[in-house]
Write a structure and sequence with these properties.
By secondary structure, the chain is an alpha+beta fold. The chain has one domain (3-67). Helices cover 40% and strands 12% of the residues. The chain contains three helices and two strands, in the order αααββ. It has helices at residues 6-15, 17-29, 38-50; strands spanning 54-59, 63-67. It has a two-stranded antiparallel sheet with strand order 1-2.
Length: 89
């Protein structure tokens, strides 16, 4: 990463820290198994849309894809994350 970009990026992350913690607590407090994570999918899609992301839903039922466009660049970065819980007996 370009060193001059790091401090502003960290400041932007810190500005959203409380919201991110609240989202994590909500997701972890309401675990959903694979392909049943409807509330989690709704939460993620709603937040991405609120933050200005282009949101696509319905992939494999509960999947969410968010696209953030900036300027005219054609460069892309991919990030994948699981949203499902593991069953614990």
């Amino acid at each position: 990463m370009n060193a001059p970009l790091l401090p502003p990026a960290l400041d932007a992350i810190r500005a959203h820290e409380a919201e991110m913690v609240a989202i994590r607590q909500q997701i972890h407090g309401n675990p959903e198994l694979a392909y049943e994570e409807h509330a989690t999918s709704d939460l993620v899609a709603e937040r991405l849309a609120r933050w200005g992301w282009e949101v696509h839903r319905g992939l494999a039922g509960t999947g969410v894809v968010g696209t953030l466009r900036a300027g005219t660049s054609t460069r892309r970065i991919g990030l994948r994350a699981d949203m499902d819980a593991l069953p614990i007996a």
